[in-house]
Specification:
Elements lengths: L1 H12 L2 H17 L10 H28 L8 H25 L5 H28 L4 H25 L5 E3 L3 E3 L12 H25 L7 H19 L1 H4 L5 H8 E5 L3 E6 L4 H21 L8 E6 L2 H7 L7 E3 L4 E5 L8 H10 L11 E3 L7 E3 L1 H11 L2 E2 L2 E2 H10 L6 H6 L7 H18 L2 H9 L3 H5 L3 H13 L5 H12 L9 H16 L3 H14 L4 H14 L2 H14 L7 H18 L3 H12 L5 H14 L3 H12 L18 H12 L3 H9 L9 H17 L3 H8 L5 H6 L1 H15 L1
Parallel strand pairs: 4-5, 5-7
Antiparallel strand pairs: 1-2, 3-4, 6-7, 8-9, 10-11
Helix pairs in contact: 2-3, 2-4, 3-4, 3-5, 3-6, 4-5, 5-6, 5-7, 7-8, 11-13, 11-35, 13-14, 14-17, 15-17, 15-21, 17-18, 22-23, 23-24, 24-25, 24-26, 25-26, 26-27, 26-28, 27-28, 30-31, 31-32, 32-33
Length: 759
């Protein structure tokens, strides 16, 4: 065997195929060191090196098998050398990646090594045995290589077919590991399902090569051990195939429906929801779907009703496990299905995702979405993302009370000159999502409003712009710019959008996945009530991403729960010193830190100091939430000594029901009922919240902001408690236009819901 190994090593080193493969691998590894996020050992670098190494190793191992036969050795003896050859080929990739990780100050090298092992190393092993088996089947070298590469292509095509015809968008693949379904997904972990898939990949590769050896070699047919190995691999592969849904390795529509467990049949839709979502929330979402579909059918001028299936996941973790891409909501127009997470009420992106489905009626017949010719190969259609997202934004034209015409004006006010021409005739993904979606959506809506809906639908379906609208794209784009300049951007919204646009993109955050893993663990411990463990993981995330204000505020919130008053003092003092380096997020961050500092100072009993902080803070331009918090703390400072002590005791208490004691302080502190009602609302005790809010005299509250918010929260509690008659009675008393606008969707839903109940 030693002589055989020497011959193999000599032939490998002397093989131009192996040398070329090694050089290509090294070039790929070096290129990755120049790219943000790819220059560390984690998800991005591991999946790329696994993919590239697999292709090369399929070819190299196929040639190695034929070399082995040429020197007259039995086929089974070359499996182990093929694996050794694979490890030799990826060794330089590992070394380059490891050095890059050290230079780039990798947050956790153990995480990086884990990812490299699970992706690159195991994919290399699977590719080497698969390529070796393919090479054994044919004497002609090109046939073995062709079979090896065909196996690789077959798995890729299989992934694409599953993506198109089945709900999940994540893939477990023997040649590249795992793809989450999104190009930039923060939380990428090595899950139990990934261990299962890697085990299945190894067993599958071994089964394939052993089956080939059994065909080729007479000697192994007499070996009982060989048959035992084949039997174990076969039975294990069958077991994995049968249990794919239970292990999370592969999901189909029926699996997701079964695991979610809940079904609601509507007029034009089926809502498959997680049974862990409260029934009141499911009813609310069902009412929203009814309303949105009614209005969207009118927007798209569809005479025929389009049936839709909605998958509603209880949280992002469940969505990631059953569907993939936990941080994005997704529509699959060709399946007429959308996939969303139960979150806010009304759901912020439901209308947008439903719009994708209905827009499919004016689209490419295959994709059920707008398409354009592939460059060079013009006979092949590919999705036209600018049109796809543009028409969905045009149909769901308002977000958080601000329409996309206003958002486009704000973008211009901030100095961004990205034009419709840049978005529609350039690379949609080359622009930040805030810019790309806003310009694409506002321009499409402007065409809808100023030319004709039919023109938009014809253009979306593939008609030329000139034929659809009777004018050139440039002329329309110039007219659109004049329209945007005709009104001034709303100043109160400029700061909010500026903050959104100033956020760092994921690929600019060092160790983004490792930070996200720590934050995920922290939130998990918060949900289980283990705040000390949550604090530990949040601190680690903060050390790794010290420029992230959201993480620092998260740490402060946990410290407040743990009553770590000295820690809060140190953190707020340090944060205020560092705030000048926060860029566009600096002002909001400083204000949030000052609120923590004021609250902490009150908890320690230093009311003059707290009053001074709050007085200065209230002179600044605060958003509504911060201003209410500052006013509430300021009101606490003005209470008499006895009442103030009772309030502080409630704030300090670790008893979940302590906040309900605030009801007893209502006569001495009007805000007490407001806070007690809000606590009940957070805990989904809507009847109690409605009762508490009903007892409040709005004029007793210290500021108009509380009175306006009281209207919103009271109406929400009444609606969710199904007190519709009282809801409409209170609604009629609302005259303030801004409040009415904020409640408009809630009002529509309640009317529609009430109508259904009456019927």
């Amino acid at each position: 065997m030693n002589a055989v190994f020497k011959d193999i090593i000599r032939s490998l080193l002397g093989s131009w195929t192996f040398r070329i493969a090694a050089v290509i691998n090294i070039i790929v590894a070096v290129i990755l060191t120049t790219m943000p996020l790819f220059n560390m050992m984690d998800y991005e670098s591991s999946i790329v090196t696994a993919f590239s190494s697999s292709i090369l190793l399929l070819v190299v191992s196929s040639l190695l098998a034929q070399k082995f036969e040429e020197i007259g050795e039995s086929p089974e003896g070359g499996v182990f050398p093929a694996v050794i050859a694979a490890l030799v080929l990826i060794a330089p990739v590992f070394l380059i990646g490891f050095l890059s990780a050290v230079v780039s100050r990798q947050c956790s090298l153990s995480d990086g090594l884990h990812f490299f092992l699970m992706y690159t190393v195991l994919s290399a092993v699977v590719s080497s045995v698969t390529g070796y088996g393919a090479g054994l089947l044919f004497k002609a070298r090109w046939k073995g290589i062709l079979l090896a590469v065909s196996i690789f292509i077959a798995f890729i095509v299989g992934d694409l077919v599953r993506f198109f015809f089945h709900p999940p968008i994540f893939f477990y693949n023997p040649f590249y590991g795992f793809f989450s379904g999104a190009f930039y997904d923060q939380l990428i972990e090595i899950t139990p399902a990934f261990y299962w898939s890697r085990t299945a990949d190894l067993l599958g590769g071994l089964l394939f090569v052993h089956a080939v050896i059994l065909i080729k070699s007479w000697s192994v047919r007499k070996s009982r051990l060989f048959y035992i190995v084949c039997a174990i691999c076969t039975l294990s592969a069958l077991a994995f195939a049968i249990t794919t849904a239970h292990t999370g390795y592969r999901m189909y529509r029926s699996d997701i429906i079964r695991l979610l467990g809940g079904t609601h049949e509507g007029k034009d839709f089926t809502l498959n929801y997680s049974k862990d979502i409260p029934k009141w929330k499911v009813n609310f979402y069902a009412a929203q779907v009814d309303l949105e579909l009614e209005e969207l059918h009118a927007f798209f001028k569809l005479k025929r009703r389009v049936p839709v299936r909605i998958f509603l996941f209880k949280d992002r973790m469940q969505k990631r496990r059953l569907f993939g891409a936990m941080h994005v909501e997704v529509a699959k127009p060709n399946l007429r299905e959308i996939f969303i997470t139960a979150d806010d009420i009304p759901h912020h992106s439901m209308r947008h995702e439903l719009a994708h489905i209905l827009a499919g009626e004016y689209s490419n017949a295959f994709f059920k979405a707008a398409a354009k010719p592939l460059p060079v190969l013009s006979f092949i259609p590919i999705p036209d993302i600018a049109k796809i997202e543009g028409i969905a934004v045009a149909a769901a034209f308002e977000l958080d009370g601000v329409d996309f015409y206003q958002r486009a004006r704000i973008i211009r006010a901030l100095g961004n000159k990205t034009s419709a021409e840049d978005i529609f005739h350039g690379n949609f993904y080359a622009f930040p999502s805030t810019i790309a979606y806003t310009i694409a959506g506002s321009f499409t809506r402007w065409l809808y409003d100023n030319y004709s809906p039919e023109g938009v639908f014809a253009w979306h379906k593939g008609k030329s712009f000139t034929d659809a609208f009777g004018t050139s794209f440039k002329a329309a784009s110039d007219a659109f710019e004049i329209f945007l300049q005709s009104e001034k951007a709303p100043e109160d919204e400029v700061a909010n959008l500026r903050k959104s646009m100033s956020r760092r993109s994921i690929h600019r955050i060092r160790c983004v996945h490792q930070v996200a893993r720590e934050m995920s663990k922290s939130r998990h411990h918060i949900n289980t009530g283990n705040f000390k463990a949550a604090y530990k993981h949040a601190q680690q995330a903060c050390r790794w991403d010290s420029a992230n204000p959201d993480i620092k505020l998260h740490v402060l919130k946990i410290a407040r729960e743990l009553k770590y008053f000295d820690t809060i003092d140190k953190m707020t003092s340090s944060a205020l010193k560092e705030s000048k380096a926060m860029g566009g997020q600096g002002a909001d961050y400083v204000q949030a830190v000052l609120l923590f500092q004021a609250e902490n100072t009150i908890m320690k009993g230093d009311f003059p100091a707290a009053k001074s902080i709050l007085t200065n803070l209230l002179e600044e331009d605060l958003n509504e939430g911060m201003k209410r918090m500052a006013l509430m703390l300021d009101s606490m400072c003005d209470l008499d000594k006895e009442t103030r002590s009772e309030v502080i005791e409630i704030f300090r208490s670790t008893d979940e029901n302590a906040w309900m004691k605030l009801e007893q302080l209502a006569e001495r502190w009007p805000l007490a009922l407001y806070l007690a009602g809000s606590s009940a609302l957070i805990k989904d005790d809507f009847t109690k919240a409605a009762d508490l809010y009903s007892k409040i005299n709005p004029q007793s509250l210290p500021h108009g902001l509380f009175r306006k918010e009281l209207q919103i929260r009271y109406l929400k509690a009444l609606f969710l408690a199904e007190r519709y008659e009282k809801f409409h009675e209170v609604w009629k008393t609302i005259t303030e236009s801004k409040t009415k606008k904020a409640l408009d969707v809630l009002h529509k839903l309640s009317k529609f819901r009430s109508k259904r109940i009456e019927n």
